[in-house]
Amino acid sequence: MKATFCRRREFCALFLFLAVYVLIFVLRHMDILEFQPKFNSTFIMPRVSTHRNEIRSFCTFQPLSLEDALEEYLILESTAWPETPLLPAPISLEQTSDPAHSTFTILPGRKGGQWHVGDQLEVMIQTSDFQGRPKKSGGDFLLASLHNRKLEAGVAGQVVDHLNGSYSTVFPLLWEGDAQVEVTLVHPGEGISVLKRLNREQPDRMYFKSLFHSGSLSETTYCGVCLRPTQQPLCNYTDLRTGEPWFCYKPKNLSCDTRINHYMGGYREKILNANEEKLFQSGVNLKVYIRASGPANVTVLPQKEGQQQVKSSIVTSGPSGYYYQGVWRALGSITVPEFNVSAISQCLKGKVVHMYGDSTIRQWFEYLNAVLPGLNAFDLHTPKRTGPYMSLDFAHNILVTYRSHGPPIHFPAMDTRQLRYIANELDGLVGEPNTVVVFTIWAHLGPFPMEFYIRRMRGIRRAVVRLLDTTPGTLVVIRTGNLKALFLQVTVSHSDWYTLQRDKVLRAMFKGLNVQLIDAWEMTLAHHLPHDLHPPPPIIRNMINHLLSYICPHNGG
Fold it and tell me: Please, which contacts does 304-309 make with residues 24 or more away whose CB atoms are closer than 8 Å?
């Protein structure tokens, strides 16, 4: 006789799914199930693991619900980077990918070598090592873009790894005239393996400090998400509402509640050996162009009569937009016009715009203050870089605010009372149709385990859902991370690869919600200007135009 609970096929499938899920959860989380932070305790000693490669050896996270644990597992699996075969130690640079010996090739067009607007340009990339031998494995981090400097036109390409040393990318052809292909090796796969190991083994390679003060006594101690166990007890500043972890070593002669500030301490030195450092050499294998094996450009002819409209054919799978004559043109349902000063004022009239995040969103606040003559900063007597800020335009009834996200934040000394988590700030908002919420959180979280980022995003997502449930007319816009200039010290904690991985997580976690994205990644990749942590004014202007197009979809000037 069949068991009653398995009488229907869908019940059997559900039972099997739950069984597998519980097994995955136990295997991945058995160590944190053994330890739960005590929020009513001032001090907390991290659980020590004997497994040197386990991030939770000195990173303590709250246990997850089954649903959250499954989501975390699926996201980590979906964003997993291709593994690169381990090389014998010490790593030999000669066996890693060399941009000088690698090449890309433009594949012939399907129409007798001709390309028209609306066609696709296919490019194959073959990587080789420093001895010129073709690579047989994937895992390299490559960027691809298509440009016309005279037209100030550009579009980003998505690179596909074929896991055998070859890669491909496809560009939509969106303008008439010359189109120049650019392919860049950011990191060889062996370098990615090092970056993954650093986040696993050294999540404290960037450190923070806090000053504790009471009466005539002052002490400074180290702080962070992950602190290595010592004989010194810890002060536990885990946020009671969000569960965001933060710890400081307890001062010897002061209590934990005497902490008065937070600031960036610095970076630990010599975290790579000499052979590992060779994998991150500027001008050699760190963000270096790959040459073409033939022509690096094509001439694009006008779109043929009756050919399918370019915009509708690529919006679901291609880039989010492109530049033409220096102006960003979105390829989704939104049109991005150029907003002059008058149009910006009219668009923001009667609006309240709250910005949260790091200095890359502070750029937007500063841009609006610079271009709008009626928008004046209200002196809150806060530090220049850290904020918070508030600006008012009484004539147009505009309010714009900026506040940095919570720890880890790499700013100069901040009063601990100004350390606010985005999720908590959103829970304190009274939204309405004239309220705009803009946030970004990426640049400061690169050195930390991906689990930490997922949990931070989950808390923000829940706050966004609560906000939209209570006031559905509130507009929520998320700025993604962007490319930056790289050198060794920046790379080991803030590589573009860390940004890319977090960008994937962010998109996965907010997919399907009523929020809007501004694709800073593509807007910096598609532009001809050099990559910079703080994108230059032409890119910021286009980002603001994109933001305003969400606020006022039918305006412009």
Answer: 304/116, 304/118, 307/116, 307/118, 308/118, 309/118
The CATH number linked to 466 is: 3.40.50.1110
Judge whether residue 252 has pLDDT over 70. Answer: yes
Same-domain status, 443 and 547 = yes
In a shared domain, residues 302 and 405? no
Q: What pLDDT digit, counting tens, does each position of 18-76 carry?
A: 544 544 444 444 333 332 333 222 222 233 233 334 444 578 788 999 999 999 999 99
pLDDT at 6: 44
Q: For residues 296-328, b (16+ Cβ closer than 10 Å) or e, as one string?
A: bbbebeebeeeeeebbeebbeebbbbbbbebbb
Residues 272, 278: Cα–Cα separation, whole Å:
10
- Least Cα distance to 535 among 491, 489, 494, 485 occurs for 485
Q: What is the pLDDT, as a whole number, of residue 493?
A: 95
> Structurally, how many domains does the chain consist of?
2
| Same domain as 537, residue 463 | yes
Indicate whether 155 belongs to any domain: yes
Contacts of 502-508 with C-beta under 8 Å, sequence gap 24+, read: 502/442, 502/445, 502/446, 502/450, 502/453, 503/442, 504/78, 504/79, 505/75, 505/79, 505/450, 505/453, 505/454, 505/457, 506/442, 506/457, 506/478, 506/480, 507/480, 508/75, 508/78, 508/79
Co-location of 373 and 303 in the same domain: no
What is the helix (H) or strand (E) element at residue 427, kind and residue range?
A: helix 422-427
Would the pLDDT of 199 be above 80? Answer: yes
User: Residues 420, 306: one domain?
Assistant: no
Could you tell me if residue 167 is inside a domain? yes
Average pLDDT rounded to a whole number, residues 432-449: 95
How far is Cα 226 from Cα 202, in angstroms, rounded to an integer?
9
Do residues 426 and 545 share a domain? Answer: yes
Tokens matching residue 554: 């039918």
Domain of residue 126 covers 94-193+291-310
Q: What is the DSSP letter of 150?
A: T
- Strand 103-106 and strand 288-292: the pairing is parallel
Residue with tokens 């964003």: 79
Q: Which amino acid is at 52?
A: R
Amino acid (1-letter code) at residue 529: L
The encoded tokens of residue 110 equal: 């399907």
3-state SS class at 423: helix
The answer to whether 311 and 123 have CB atoms below 8 angstroms apart is no
Among the listed residues 478, 206, 224, the one whose alpha carbon sits nearest the alpha carbon of residue 357: 478
Q: Give the domain-ending residue among 310, 343, 373.
A: 310
pLDDT, position 402: 97
Cβ(210)–Cβ(20) below 8 Å: no
The candidate with the shortest Cα–Cα distance to 151, out of 9, 309, 323, 318, is 323
Position 81 in a domain: no
**Percentage of the chain exceeding pLDDT 90:** 79
Kindly state the average pLDDT of the residues 482-501: 97
127, pLDDT greater than 90: yes
Tokens 């028209």 correspond to what residue? Answer: 116
Same domain, 459 and 499: yes
3-state class (DSSP) for residue 164: coil
3-state secondary structure of 100: coil
| pLDDT over 70 (residue 455) | yes
